[in-house]
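// run 5 | inverse folding | seed 20
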């Protein structure tokens, strides 16, 4: 009886290990092993052991966003236009290097600003397309578009943060002595398939959707 209990115990442990191994492989990101046995894993997990992440993340992240800033600086009767500066990538790198860095909160805030700007852009574009008068007057439509975007939370937050970036770029100069400074931003957003469409190829750009928002030059100093 003792050996039977040991055998039953070992069999039970083996079954649990196999079960969690199959479920773990099923939930892992795409990799060669998962790709090779995807039908077997799917057949084992569904429908009794299928996983739902709605409790933890109802709207999981499914996009990569980039924020670029460009400055037009007027000083001593002349002006200079800077190159485009990627302000979001350094935040990501620092967050990966320092888990407890306060940059994590800043990165999250900038993400919400960019998302807000993208949603505002989609909203005003829909409105402009529904207005027959503005459809016939592209100059007025462009003016309305940029005026609306400048008033949104996303645009105002980005331009406010740009003051910090400006001082980092001209760290050896007195920014307050400049005649005036204007900033322009560009947001790039690439959305990849959500987890519910995980059967799609994540490496095929045809399965992505891309969006771009470009502002006017706004005066900040």
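// decoded
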């Amino acid at each position: 009886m003792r050996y039977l209990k040991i055998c039953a115990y070992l069999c039970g442990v083996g079954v649990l290990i196999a079960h969690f191994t199959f479920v773990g492989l099923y939930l892992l990101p795409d990799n060669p092993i998962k790709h090779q046995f995807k039908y077997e894993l799917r057949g084992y997990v569904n429908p009794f052991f299928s996983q739902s992440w709605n409790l933890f993340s109802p709207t999981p992240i499914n996009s990569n966003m980039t924020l670029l800033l460009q400055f037009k600086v007027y000083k001593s009767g002349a002006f200079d236009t800077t190159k485009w500066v990627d302000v979001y990538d350094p935040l990501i790198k620092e967050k990966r290097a320092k888990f407890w860095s306060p940059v994590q909160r800043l990165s999250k805030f900038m993400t919400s600003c960019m998302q807000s700007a993208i949603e505002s852009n989609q909203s005003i574009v829909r409105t402009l397309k529904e207005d027959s008068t503005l459809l016939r007057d592209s100059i007025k439509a462009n003016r309305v578009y940029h005026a609306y975007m400048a008033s949104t939370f996303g645009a105002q937050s980005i331009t406010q943060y740009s003051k910090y970036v400006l001082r980092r770029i001209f760290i050896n100069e007195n920014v307050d002595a400049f005649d005036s400074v204007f900033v322009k931003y560009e947001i790039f957003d690439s959305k990849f398939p959500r987890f519910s469409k995980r059967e799609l190829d994540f490496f095929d750009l045809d399965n992505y959707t891309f969006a771009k928002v470009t502002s006017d030059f706004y005066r900040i100093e």
